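To illustrate this point, we now present one chain and its tokenised fold:
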Amino acid sequence: MKKTSLFKAAVAALAMASSVVAVSAVISTPAAADVAASKAMVDAAKAKGTVGERNNGYLGFVSGSGDAATKAAVDEINAGRKSVYGQAAAKNGVSPEAAGISAYANVIVPKLKAGEYYQDASGNWVKK
């Protein structure tokens, strides 16, 4: 598969994930409220430097494992990403792992804010 096609698939997958979160914030069902609350908690943890973006397209703890609520929020966001990467992979004939790595490199890293952490190619945490 061409890198461009994988990039487009990853962008589409993350756009879909972003719109799911945006729609979830508008809908007032308990499940939607949980997703919005998880996103807010993860965003706060990223701003504090507790949570960062792993080089495989998933969230991870920069050090330690965080409190139970933050861990649950990270797990929920990662489950959503896993679903999106799986859909993108199936659509484009690649592995979900490749879709996650492509999304990380082409979508997630460019959107990082100053002060947030991400993993370099060696898996070391780097502050943007």
Q: What stands out?
A: The first strand starts at residue 51 and ends at 53. The beta strands are 51-53, 59-61, 117-119, 125-127. Residues 15-29 have pLDDT under 50 and may be disordered. DSSP finds four helices and four strands in the chain.
